[in-house]
Amino acid sequence: MRFAILTGGGDCPGLNAAIRAVVRRGLRDGHELLGFRYGWAGVMEGDLMPLTMQSTAGILLRGGTILGTSRTNPFSAQNAGHGLQAIRQTLEHHRIDALIAIGGEDTLGVALKLHQAEVPVVGIPKTIDNDLGETDATIGFNTAVQIAADAIDRIHTTAESHNRVMVVEVMGRHAGWIATHAGIASGGDAILIPERPFDIEDVCSHLRRRHQRGRSFSIVVVAEGAKPRQGTIETRVGAAQDAFGHERLGGIGVVLEHEIEHRTGYETRVTILGHVQRGGVPTAFDRVLATRFGVAAIDAAAQGRLGSMVSLQGTRIVEVSLRDALREPKLVDPSLYETAATFFG
Question: Does residue 101 surpass a pLDDT of 90?
Fold first, then answer.
């Protein structure tokens, strides 16, 4: 059989490990493997490259994706009427039996629409935000948490040296998994996440209590999608949107820097980790997870279990439907956040 792989959406560590696993398993079982460059754009345009033992050698440890990626949406208003048709024509022309799509909510959302249109597709969950349903972990999340935790560890020392409040902004549009895990791991004194609109005065009260107990510095970890309670402080609106209608986030850390210093009088600085969380070498956990996902995905495709997404549940790799995985975002467990909140202030 002939299978093709694509990587869509934001890049993250572990993508190449998944590509390698699909190729190695597929070649072992006598299949032919191809890769579409730059996500769904490559499928629409027929931009293909062969994937062989040689072309995937040595990529297990590499960050990013050898296939490239994009946020192209075949079902956007711009592509309406020809996106699906272009994908069908490409798959037919190149005699591709099934697509293996590696991506997050948006990439796999396209995969679900294709499945509903009877296009053969299997999904692999990838997002550093860890917000896909029906799986305990997604490719890239573990590495992003480690990167953020390492950065916060370093920020601790400079915060203590200068008696400062340090605000660390991490990624997380709808879900605060990175902020919560990295904040717990690195002793954050306040963790602000999208699931819980925050009151700036509550945050400042936490920081004042620390100072009253003799702690001269504090660390505030905030997810980029965190929002203040309505009517408290102003944040920017009207940011540019991508092809899936998402606003470009970033900047809540700057707002907090100003508000905390203004309200408490404590010298405050912000560090926005940004895309550094997506880059570099994947952790051992992500390499293993991506490898297991890749093997399971090519097996599902070869055996005709289409419209599925491979998933980690406990310690087992299972298959779930794309529909179930995308029904609603996986948000931070309230009990996990309450564990973190034990240490606030």
Answer: yes
Domains of the chain by residue range: 2-140+282-325, 142-279
Checking if the pLDDT of 60 tops 80, the result is: yes
Listed in order, strand segments (DSSP E) in the chain are: 2-7, 32-36, 48-50, 98-103, 121-125, 165-170, 190-192, 218-223, 268-272, 308-313, 316-321
Contacting residues for 210 by C-beta, under 8 A, at least 6 apart = 189, 218, 345
Residue 247: which pLDDT band, with cuts at 50, 70 and 90? low
Task: Kindly report the CATH number that applies to the domain delimited by 142-279.
Answer: 3.40.50.460
What is the CATH topology of the domain spanning 2-140+282-325? Rossmann fold (3.40.50)
With beta carbons less than 8 A apart as the criterion, state whether 177 and 332 touch: yes
> Chain centroid to CA 147: how far?
13
For position 240, what pLDDT does the model report?
60
Tell me if residue 129 is catalytic: yes
So what's the pLDDT on residue 344? 85
| pTM to 2 decimal places | 0.93
CA distance linking residue 175 with residue 326, whole number of Å: 14
Catalytic residue among 11, 29, 97, 129: 129
